[in-house]
Specification:
Shape: globular
Number of strands: 12
Strand content: 15-25%
Order of helices and strands: EHEHEHEHEEEEHHEHEHEHHE
Number of helices: 10
Helix content: 25-40%
Distance between the termini: 24 Å
Length: 275
């Protein structure tokens, strides 16, 4: 799985440390990186104009945004050269969120930051909707990088017993296999009354042990959802692998994934739609 295509779709401050993290996380050759800056996000930090008051503020901000994009593209290219990866920029002037989501259908993974995830976009009716709502239509898994940490210490993934969730676990094991081999992995089983048969559960665990070296299983239900913090040790250095529709079944997961406090983990939304 060395030959993969990854979209990096950011807005906000275009922080170089996020590029550093991506190349630390995915140190593979033969990767094609596609750089994309999203232009139509609302509710994200903006680059301020000059404070002198002698220039046109809109023109000044646009000039600074253009310079920031070029600097970000340049830094992406430098990292690709060092890692012997390829990269391309399809739209130098940036793209819309709709353009970005269309491109996910021709990629293996998309990476965005927490600020992009929390942004808003206008829909066809002119209403503002959370950008994260668009992820349901993504054609590939989406990795969300939090703002305040650049290190992953453990992996926690959801499993509700469905074939769709199993498909998501396979996507993680193929795309980010090094994390599964080198870090502790906890699987949160979120099925309550109707789970897989004993034989299916045996086969499931057999698969997990083949791919993950340091493995634990933790049953999560409405009565025990608070144990995700105490028993699993969830923190901001956790990568949450979200295999839908599990988060819809337990409120604690939805609250955690959309929280704005400091405990927000890395999030990998696997692409589990089948059609």
């Amino acid at each position: 799985m060395d030959r993969i295509k990854i979209i990096i779709g950011f807005w906000g401050k275009l922080d170089h440390k996020e590029i550093d993290f991506i190349f630390k996380l995915i140190p593979r050759k033969q990767v094609l990186f596609v750089g994309a800056v999203v232009n139509d996000l609302i509710g994200v930090s903006e680059i301020p104009p000059c404070q002198s008051g002698k220039c046109d503020k809109d023109a000044c901000r646009q000039k600074k945004e253009n310079e920031a994009r070029k600097s970000w593209y340049r830094y992406l290219g430098e990292n690709c050269k060092r890692s012997h990866s390829k990269y391309t920029i399809h739209k130098e002037e940036g793209c819309s969120s709709a353009d970005l989501m269309r491109e996910t259908h021709y990629a293996d993974l998309m990476i965005i930051n927490q600020e992009t995830y929390r942004g808003q976009v206008g829909n066809e009716d002119g209403e503002l909707v959370p950008f994260r709502n668009l992820l349901a239509s993504s054609g590939c898994p989406v990795l969300v990088i939090p703002a305040n940490t650049m290190d992953i210490e453990q992996v926690v993934m959801t499993f509700d017993g469905t074939s769709r969730a199993m498909h998501g676990i396979k996507q993680f094991s193929y795309l980010l296999s090094e994390l599964g081999q080198n870090l502790p992995v906890t699987v949160l089983t979120t099925y309550c009354e109707e789970g897989p048969s004993a034989m299916e559960e045996k086969l499931f665990i057999e698969y997990l042990k083949q791919h993950f070296q340091n493995l634990a299983l933790h049953k999560l239900s409405h009565d025990t959802e608070h144990t995700i913090y105490s028993a699993v040790g969830l923190n901001s250095n956790t990568l949450m692998v979200v295999n839908n529709p599990s988060p819809e079944n337990l409120t604690v997961l939805g609250n955690l994934l959309n929280s704005e406090d400091s405990i927000v983990p890395f999030k990998l939304y696997t692409q589990t739609q089948q059609g």
